[in-house]
Design a protein that fits this description.
Number of domains: 3
Number of strands: 19
Largest sheet: 11 strands, antiparallel
Radius of gyration: 24 Å
Distance between the termini: 64 Å
Shape: globular
CATH topology of the largest domain: Transferase(Phosphotransferase), domain 1
Length: 563
Amino acid sequence: MAFTVVDGWTVPGFTHERDLGGGASGRVVLAVDDQTSTKVAIKYLVGALRADEAFLARFRAAARSLSQLEDPNVVDFYDFVETPDGAAIVMESVAGVGLRRVLAVQGPTGPLAALSMLGGTLLGLAAAHGRDIVHGAVRPSNVLVDAEGNARLADFATAPAGTEAQSGPAYAAPELWDGAPASVSTDLYAATAIFFECLTGRPPFTGRNMAKLHRESPIPAEAVPGPLRALITQGLAKDPDERPKSAADFLGAVEDAAVSAYGPSWEAQGRGRLTELSAQAAARPEPKPKPARTSGRNVIVAATPAGGGSRGRWMAIAVAGLVVVGAAVGGAALLQDDGQKQPPDPTPAQSSTPQSALPNGGVDPTPLVARIDQATARAAGAKFSFSRKGCCGTATARGSLGVVQGGLPSFSMTVSGSGATRKAAQTVLVRDVVYLRAGKRWRHSPAGGRGYPMLAEQVRQGSSVSNLTTLLRSATTLRKAGTVYQGEAPLSALAQAPGVGLLYTEMARTTGTDKISFAVRLDRGNLPVKLWVRAQDATKKRTQVLTASYSGWGRTAPVKTPR
């Protein structure tokens, strides 16, 4: 049934199904494309925004970048429609529950769900910031929890410049109150404030003079569990220079804290808890807004601003349909060892040839590895970050990797470690040669040599896609929850694996254990997003943890040999 919205105007070519609610920037409706039958969400901008030429100019520029942004933690958008009668944003329709409603109905989420929410939010911000897109209005009403427990960001760049603090005072960084523009740092501050609210049930600062509270009140880190206080202190620092430099940097700190406190399956368990909480919130009546709330009204089906592409472009990539939150309740147990096995991946067809036994947990790694190999081969490369912590030295690296068919992956990165490699160095690793930047020149050495060449090779082994697939192939235990796979693998088998054997030989030697635990997260296209590996001896005194994160698959330039 069609109906009029905002001055009697509707976007041509769509049939409206129902009203989904509204907020400060406009009303959202569920609609169906008349040509493709694809369900979409359309946000009709309020008159004040349509009349604000400065906002429209800024939004049009952001929309061009948003049209190319594809990330599992960002709600996809399709088009920005402007006519003399009105303006509207056409975007992906995702059935889910806004985080504002989850918090209002369920209260605090607990630490694992809060960490998962923060991790997903930071992944979405990292993807956007990588394209120079600042959100400007990160708050619970703009975070959607989908059917798989993913935190997905919506409504990028819809707050007019200079209004960010007033439109979301509970989440506004001190500098916004002083008139500074929204930035990467203010987005991270807001994400941390939401994290605090997930942990405690309330924003970090509440009261009448919000500007003064954000500027001067002590950061209430003692209100959250001890292992997570450093994250709150970093993210809510009064001085933006004391906050993490990027969403990717903050995500690395979140992963380190979460693995140390809750083990490598923290993210899977947290997403399971978010799935459960969102399904329960969806089944209960939405509570009436409390007068003290300052973050705005929740919109159940989220929407992101649409980009400047044509309708023909976005119709070609339109989503297949809605995701039903209630259908995911059965998977809420995730990776916990509660005796409930997850459904296995498809297994090979029966034949007269004996089939090898599946790992404990029922997941067949063979088709999974094939899908990962196919996906990464098409993508050719990505941005990455790597960290090794624990006993026997540290290593960190950040940069881009290139997938080389039939050969070793190439890396262009900034890398640092312990001792003589403590200073960060710009390094390129191509085939078996390491190129190290020395002033304006590049020096080259064989990979695996002493110092930085050895460190670069360790990073390659730990961050390569072959490491991830080797772990899956070698697993004696492998369980699945959504797009996360958790397992265990013997170090004796990993030490024999081509390309990564030295990594695990050294890990066995330094920790004295005979097996590792790991967790792998993939996106919806089977591309790696995160990898965790933990080795720990029986006394828990010697531990080594490796983490790697990936983003921007297919959007990075090939790694080239320096000249």
